[in-house]
Design a protein that fits this description.
Number of domains: 1
Order of helices and strands: HHHHHHHHEHHE
Radius of gyration: 16 Å
Number of helices: 10
Number of strands: 2
Shape: globular
Oligomer: single chain
CATH class: Mainly Alpha
CATH architecture: Orthogonal Bundle
CATH superfamily: Hypothetical protein, domain 2
Structural class: mainly alpha
């Protein structure tokens, strides 16, 4: 039996525990991973993260292993194919947003050298460690996520509200919101 103390939100099943233990809150500056998380987080808007996490392998297959160049060039045929794929969230606006966001991701990479440089500027390239004592202490937005959202909106990104931006910041380790007693903490 696993007796590790974890953040309460991940106790639903092994899929959630594995994501919590190995990925959530771990700093990532890899553009491929950042693109994947941007796509997944944008599809999560209005849904539970668990729904998206359970479909992650399907998303990976449907979106060409999150190859930003491929996604940026999706045409009407590919969009129609995605709309027929029961393994993903079939929301046309979100699919169109994924294509739009891929194009803007590439444009932003060119401007900043990497997309990582762009994203991490909102935390001065450091992880914000909140050390919450309970889930009630975990925010859904912050001034940093607000600033990221406003800048991304100005650049034309879709499905990137402040809450989605904060969730992305948590998922890629820009923010560490593991509870103070979570075993993942040093």
């Amino acid at each position: 039996m696993d007796d590790k103390i974890r953040c309460k939100w991940c106790l639903k099943d092994d899929l959630y525990k594995a994501y919590h233990d190995t990925e959530w809150g771990k700093p990532s500056k890899d553009d491929k991973h950042l693109f994947e998380m941007m796509i997944l987080e944008s599809f999560q808007a209005g849904l539970s993260w668990y729904t998206i996490l359970a479909k992650r392998k399907n998303f990976r297959a449907a979106f060409d292993n999150f190859d930003v160049q491929c996604v940026a060039n999706y045409n009407e045929n590919k969009i129609n194919e995605l709309m027929q794929n029961a393994g993903i969230v079939r929301n046309k606006l979100k699919i169109l947003a994924a294509v739009n966001n891929a194009q803007l991701f590439i444009k932003t990479q060119k401007e900043f050298g990497t997309f990582s440089n762009y994203l991490w500027q909102f935390t001065n390239h450091l992880t914000i460690d909140n050390r919450p004592l309970s889930m009630a202490d975990v925010s859904t937005t912050t001034p940093e996520s607000d600033a990221m959202f406003k800048d991304m909106k100005k650049r034309g990104f879709k499905f990137m509200g402040s809450t989605v931006c904060y969730a992305k910041m948590q998922s890629i380790g820009m923010v560490n919101d593991h509870l103070a007693d979570c075993f993942t903490r040093p």
